[in-house]
Amino acid sequence: MLTGSIPNSIQGLKRLDYMFLTNNSLSGPIQDWILNFKVNIDLSYNNFTKSSATSCQQLNLNLASSQSSSSVTSPSTFCLKRNLPCAGKPQYNSLFINCGGPQGDYDGNHYFGDLQKDHVSNFVLRNEGQWAYSSTGVYMGNVNADYTASNTYSLNINGSEYYNTARLSPMSLKYYGLCMEKGNYKVNLHFAEIMFSDDKSFSSLGRRIFDVSIQ
Predict the structure, then answer these.
(1) Which strands sit side by side in the sheet containing 104-106, from one edge to the other?
(2) Gap between the Cα atoms of 191 and 82, Å rounded
(3) What are φ and ψ of residue 77, in 5° steps?
(4) How far is it, in rounded angstroms, from Cα 61 to Cα 71?
(5) Model pTM score
(6) Do you know which PANTHER family this protein is assigned to (predicted)?
(7) Residue 60 DSSP symbol
(8) CA 129 → CA 37, 84, 123, 154, distances in Å?
(9) What are the CA-CA distances from residue 130 to residues 93, 107, 127, 177, 179 (Å)?
(10) pLDDT tens across 39-94, in order?
(11) Domain ranges in the chain?
């Protein structure tokens, strides 16, 4: 766990393409040189106290949930606050997302599409602020990575068309339901294996481990 501020000496590094400092306890101001640094930087999920940032995604910089809540006063930059608190009045009581797939109706519910073309560590706000996601990390050695997986197998499940694609993330992937009304909610997560085959071929050797946190 890293603490303290980001040293100015980093801006002098000549061979730096990526700097991932997500999920730490870094503090102090985010200097303007960081906002304009021409490398991919991820400062999401930290505890900075000040910055002149006007959004959570600036150029190649991910700032989602990067500042202490008390240091952010503008409603337009609510996404800089820890845990992304609602900038207005809570107004939603349901949310359905087809992660990495198109919009559509299934089992009486309308699922928002999630077809945004991803790239290195980014934050995306969708459907007029009803939900968002933050992806961290990069697939090293693959600058053209798609960040989505496509199914090539036959799925013997109901609604199989909704499992044909899925969003990928090298480090972590977080989805946010924003401005939800207070109350008790039922959370359903739907998974289908579309990358590892169920046979004796080489593609069956992978193993899936889930690490899911719901807050």
Answers:
(1) 97-98, 109-113, 104-106
(2) 28
(3) -115, 30
(4) 19
(5) 0.85
(6) MALECTIN DOMAIN-CONTAINING PROTEIN (PTHR34081), MALECTIN, LEUCINE-RICH REPEAT DOMAIN, L DOMAIN-LIKE PROTEIN-RELATED (PTHR34081:SF1)
(7) T
(8) 27, 11, 12, 35
(9) 11, 21, 6, 6, 7
(10) 889 999 999 988 888 888 877 889 999 988 776 767 678 888 888 888 889 999 99
(11) 3-80, 97-197
